[in-house]
Amino acid sequence: MTDVGDVVAAVYADGWSRIVATLIRLTGGDWDLAEECAQDAFARALRRWPVSGVPERPLAWLTTTARNRAIDVIRRASVEAGKLREAGMVEPSMEPVPAPAYDAEIPDERLELIFTCCHPALSVEAQVVLTLRSLAGMSTAEIAAAFLVSEKTMGQRLFRAKQKIKNAGIPFRVPPAHLLPERLPTVLHVLYLLFNAGYGDPSRERVTAEAIRLARLLVALMPDEPEARGLLALVLLHDARHAARADTDGELVALDEQDRSLWDGARIAEGEAELERALRRRRAGPFQLQAAIAACHATATTAAGTDWPQIAGLYTELLRLVPTPVVALNRAVAIGMADGPEAALPILGELAADGRLDGYHLLPATRAEMLRRAGRDGEAREAYAAALELAPTEAERRFLRRRIDGLG
Amino acid sequence: MKYLMLVCLDPSFTPGPNEVDDAPDVNEWVKEMDGRGIRLIGERTRPASDATTVRVRGGEVLLTDGPFAETKEQMVGFDVLDCADLDEAIDVASKHPMAWGGLIELRPFWEGDDA
């Protein structure tokens, strides 16, 4: 017999956000009540199902349980309020309802939830934590641990974010078509931030896994959006290299030195297939281009066999859409690999003169790599030393020291 | 929902030819938003140098010449909007010419239920 705890955990992974979204709609935007009732329904399931057996449609059971509790809480609150003033708060539609016969009858408003959590009137920080709480179903304590703040601080952050939604009148909806071009990138950006926040940090593995799961969900809900599929392809292709990114001592391993047999072939194939489907729509965007670059790396059987001219071309196109100095830096690397280090050094010089990357360790680190490849060891050593001063993590500092030692 | 729309100068921004040429006409904006029942009231205000700040401390009325806070962004007018939600208020604000050359702050009213 299956363990009831496993069944509940499985339903939680897919069902939490769906129940929360349904309850937010039902309560007219009371996010706290929605989460509380969803939590309560799962707690009841854990108590009752071992005795009564798992219901035929667990999601329907949980949704109805959460819904009935929300109605109960609202009704009691309105009776309380009614003692003080006349108020016919409870609408006839708020009667407790029996469980729907099919899961398809449960409204699916997760897309509304995604767009509301990622509304551009919220700070990026608020978007990120709301997404983890309401969509991924991580507890306040788990999110606090992932972001290295106290549970109390994280609780306040979540509270303020929900207050802003309520008080500022942020609508619970999928934006109309004319707003999608400006709203969808915010959603994609938040999911990619989540992926990167967790990537390579064992204590945040859950955040990475949730980012991938939410990217899949977004594609399922918006199958015609090539950029959503591009994001999914990108995170799959990055994640496929996960096991090779650090060695047994936890040291960072550069892409060209990674053991490619550790890459996850099935994930790479899945990422490529998603990218193909996205590109077929012929509406290229930043995420599809980044995924195409990641695919070039992931499908090269050796570092030397990497198709650098193709990658350089993709970066040139990406720079046109996203004219940031970081993209320009990556393009310089690709040009250096395709046409030789001497081709990249003038571009790196321009970037240094531009000043926008001042203080960014990867600029001197990239210059150092190119100088090393050009056989200009003395200058390379100086550039590595400059990068070492700026590198933000100990792992990156160790990596740079190894490069300096390798200069001989 | 009601929003106070604060219309401000942005001293950190010099409008380029695009903002100057493409910015909507304020009279058209007023006409449209009045017609849609969105703009309930609106006025231009005199600059901060004409402002007087009033405080009562210990029962005594204290006056200060000038605004309560020295901010670079000076309020030059306001409107009160009645909108379905923040998305509509953002749309209305983004059609105001001062959003193109200055900046606009949207403050939701404190709704009666919460008071």
TrEMBL record, chain A:
Pfam family, one: DUF6596
Gene3D superfamilies reported for this sequence: 1.10.1740.10, Winged helix-like DNA-binding domain superfamily/Winged helix DNA-binding domain
Record's keyword terms, sorted: Sigma factor, Transcription, Transcription regulation
Single GO MF annotation: DNA binding
Residue ranges occupied by any DUF6596 domain in the UniProt entry: 183-278
InterPro entries reported in the protein's UniProt record: DUF6596, RNA_pol_sigma-70_dom, RNA_pol_sigma70_r2, RNA_pol_sigma70_r4_t2, RNA_pol_sigma_r2, RNA_pol_sigma_r3/r4-like, WH-like_DNA-bd_sf
Tagged with keyword Kinase: no
Domain of life, source organism: Bacteria
Segments forming domain RNA polymerase sigma factor 70 region 4 type: 115-165
GO biological processes: DNA-templated transcription initiation
All residue ranges annotated as the RNA polymerase sigma-70 region domain in the record: 22-78
Record's keyword annotation contains Transcription: yes
Protein family: Belongs to the sigma-70 factor family. ECF subfamily.
Protein name in the entry: RNA polymerase sigma-70 factor (ECF subfamily)
Organism: Phytomonospora endophytica
Automatic annotation (TrEMBL), chain B:
Record domain YCII-related: where: 1-110
Membership in a protein family: Belongs to the YciI family.
Listed name of the protein: YCII-related domain-containing protein
